Amino acid sequence: FKGKxxxxxxxxxxxxxxxxxxxxxxxYQEYSQLVQVRTRRFLESTAEVFYPFKKGRAYLLGRAWxxxxxxxxxVMQKVPEAGISLYPSKKGPLYLSLKTSFSNFxxxxxxxxxxxxxxxxxxxSIGDSIQLSQVxxxxxxxxxxxxxxxxxxxxxxxxxxxxxxxxTRLRKRYPAxxxxxxxxxxxxxxxxxxxxxxxxxxxxxxxxxxxxEFGFRNYLFGRNGQIASVRLTGLYDILAADNPFGPIRLEAxxxxxxxxxxxxxYNPNSGDFEQINYSASLQAGRVGFSFGQRYSKDDDILFYRxxxxxxxxxxxxLSSDLWYDAxxxxxxxxxxxxxxxxxxxxxxxxxxxxxxxxxxxxxxxxKGLGTIRFSGI
Length: 377
What we know:
Elements: E1 2-7, E2 14-20, H1 27-31, H2 35-38, E3 42-53, E4 56-67, E5 77-91, E6 94-106, E7 112-126, E8 130-146, E9 154-168, E10 170-173, E11 178-190, E12 209-222, E13 225-237, E14 248-254, E15 259-267, E16 272-284, E17 287-296, E18 301-311, E19 316-325, E20 330-341, E21 345-353, E22 358-366, E23 370-376
Antiparallel strand pairs: 1-2, 2-3, 3-4, 4-5, 5-6, 6-7, 7-8, 8-9, 9-11, 10-11, 11-12, 12-13, 13-14, 14-15, 15-16, 16-17, 17-18, 18-19, 19-20, 20-21, 21-22, 22-23
């Protein structure tokens, strides 16, 4: 079952509902036409109601996960969470912000955790051409835990963090484009804090840090907008005496004449690329091409994907997509489809080849009424 509903009011109570649930955990693995969906580990359902006001927002949310691979008894559900966020507001030379929340977590194994988190922050910035900004945060997190053999009934964690950042922007105009460079360096510090806590979400990733981050961004702008961007970042971890240099990450994007995105991570300690991901798409006349790669050394995966689309007429379009696993079973997914769209109706015929089987689907759309799946082979 999948369902979505959104209610938005600019100055009033708003919310959304996103439900995604299957009664058979093997459903997507057996019937999905997309390899990305067939290999999905979790399904997430979310509901949130929020009220924006001049200086912040208040919200109430619930989030549930369904494990499609293993037993769901250990999966922690977040129902509900209530919180208030106050946006940075100016107080003299400083800006102040606040995030606070109360969350209730539970699992089918009867583990219960209630968490209260409060996180005020103070900002200060000086300079124009060269900006020096500082942020200090004070954080307290309190846990109440039931039915656990691994943690005490109550845990309190107090900490603070400090970040200082030096940043500037250099601009050079040329006849055909404008080049912008933004170098920056920052230092972040969090003292030793309590780490023997249940891992519930990103709040628990707030841990001891003493690291210098450095990097720069490059932008190229033409008459019709942004042409390309490049971002290079690195990290020096003062706490890691043996291997202080962290991964060097390169992110790049090209917007003309083709769309291209690159995201790589290089480990200077091992001399290996930890990940190399890229995607590209090109429109050559009426024909569209797309291709990409996903590589992760830690996960031992190397996928290639590609696709082509061809509008034969104004109503008939052909397309093809493939997904190739270079580390495993070779061709994991091949899809060929034809789509015909008339004024009041449309039909889609799709052939999907997987390693162990294949399927042929006929989808008929009566516009205004929905889509009907007639058969699958």
